[in-house]
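User: quick one
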Amino acid sequence: MTGLLAPLADVALVLGLVLTMAAFLIWYERRLLALWQDRYGPNRVGPFGLLQVVADVIKIFFKEDWVPPFADRTVFVLAPMVIMVAVLMSFAVVPISPEIVVADSSVGVLFILAMSSMTVYASVLGGWASNNKYALLGGLRAAAQMVSYEVFMGISLMGVVVLAGSFRLGDIVEAQSGLWNCVPQFLGMLVFAVAGVAETKRVPFDLPEAEAELVAGYHTEYSGMKFGMFFVGEYLGVTLISALIVLLYFGGWRGPWLPPVVWFLLKTLAVIAVFFLLRASLPRPRFDQLMAYGWKVLLPLALLNLLVTGLVVLS
Amino acid sequence: MTVLFYLAGAVALLAAGLAVSRRNAFHALLYVVVSLLAAAVVFLTLGAPFAAVLEIIVYAGAIIVLFVFVVMMLNLGPEAAPRQHGLLSPATWIGPGVLAAVLLAELVVVITTAGGDAVAGDAVGPREVSHALFGPYVLAVELASFLLLAGLVGAAYLGSGSRTTGGEG
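Assistant: Done. Structure below.
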């Protein structure tokens, strides 16, 4: 009985933690942005404005959930589910502490890359099914951007995999017992972080939903909880990329005095704050600049990083 | 595991059939994605997690996205469906159908004569796959990389465009 219950308890724990975190991030981002922009941010509902998210969720549940008559109904409804399912599936192989992991897969890193390549479909399907020219343009941009940035997202990780000799995230954290990977894999970390921002379509790489030119991009026609799923999916993606950066480059749950889970959460929140700082400080590039930067700068850097790591390990 | 294998196999076959018979190009591509994901589960139940994950990354995550991208660029929506009306006439599918039936018969013969359980036991991890790929099969890997490089150079040449018109490129 316990053999069956223990994995289910892990699943419930991870899902609860991740979804709470994603909701909390909305408040975290608004407060941090306000701090950097010298204003207060949401501080009225509950202590420090923490219940603002709860109020927003209640509001969004009671909004009209409208499917436009010109949309492809099935695909339109399917699209927001894809992003939630794909990102939540990725968390199955993320070890939060040495004990808490749903599936400690031997191909963990690759599984996350596979699931992150599935999230492309959410934007593309949403953009196409909306049957709206802005949404279509957003979907096209999302497809081109995410397929390009996925390539060197994978290559930049391989340096870490070479050092640890395993795709298992637990092994990768164990391999950092001496020195964290952020020192020997500094270049790889930078490339991975940039690719991560592009994969989650955050500012400055939010061209698929660039509100100044495309209304709201691929989710222009979405309303109510379907929009909410795209929105939460984006924050889940940010959490996932930050958790990955912590696991791959900053020693995961390792740290003195405090329990492993606390260290993992603190580090992840710190990396997420960097994501938000990027949003607060950087403007959005043009689309051709984004593609040129990816293929002409980041791809050679990622390959160089892998090459040098391979040389050092083999020599 | 055996139940999972047959379930995923059935889903893959059904999705592949629907992918052929759909008139809407976009829906057909979505069925191809489902079929590939089901094939990945089949690999997983056969004890090949590495192949399963690569199947999703390469086929479902990259190649089909490019197909979807082209369909979106050409905007082949429901309006384009009537144009595919005559494409599934018996004259077009009988030839490939016979060939596929021969292949299926061969496959059935191989499986039934080999005997044993269809679902293998041991999982083959990434380490074993790499040892095989860069050990006994290194020649095949290098030949495949030649082919891909040739394709890459060709695509770069076709894409550069300005060369023939005497532009700055």
